Amino acid sequence: PALHRQRHQFVVDFVKENKPKKVADLGCGECTLLKKLKFHREIELLVGVDINGAKVKKKMNGLAPISTDYLQPSYDQLRIELYQGSVTQIDARLRGFDLVTSIELIEHLSLAHVEKFSEVVFGYMTPLAVIVSTPNSDFNPLLPGLAGFRHSDHKFEWTRAEFRSWALKVCLEFGYEVEFTGVGQAPSGLQEQVGFCSQIGVFHRLGGRDGCNMLFGDDTEDVFSYTLLYSINY
Ligand code: SAM
Question: What does the buried/exposed string (b/e) look like for 99-131 if buried means 16 or more CB atoms within 10 Å of the residue's CB?
Fold first, then answer.
């Protein structure tokens, strides 16, 4: 299957296994991943955030319940919210989540903004789990005809070592642990050498639900910097 599908399937599999109740997708784009996640009964709150409001609006109506959704007696309460906003800015409505995903987002940020992203996600939102995917540049020599980055809007593409060093620093600073994996296999024999096409870090907050918030105490005044574009209750 296409690589973007494999990345989204990775998140779906994580949701099936870990059953988070509140899930936020950062850089949700056209809500493709959210549309897959809305079928998972355990989820009570599903939030999407993207800096590009027009992009979100294009296909957000596909998130509305279809008539058969109401015919399912076991359909639990689900609320969906979409926001226009930047992951470099805090918003109190994004705190307290079980899972935050950031799929192919960070490579679109300047390195200064990646620092902000780390503070906002791991230091302020402090979700129980975070999934971050980004291109693995060690894999790039296997991509035919590629000169430079995989996409013209990418500000960087990290090697596995660079991704690892960012992730481990985040863990130390904000109290998380991380496992490295990925999707998109290299031909057999090369996997060891180049890794996955998309590299993925799966972060868990140390101490789980009792883990504390390092950067901002609970007495910080609530900040609302995102704009609500859409909300619906199932
Ligand atoms: N996550 C989606 C997926 O897996 O298909 C979309 C990935 S797309 C390559 C990157 C997305 O990040 C775009 O929709 C872009 O508008 C969004 N984005 C870029 N900078 C952002 C920022 N500072 N805050 C929030 N979203 C941002």
Answer: bbbbbbbbbbbeeebbebbbbbbbbbbbbbbbb
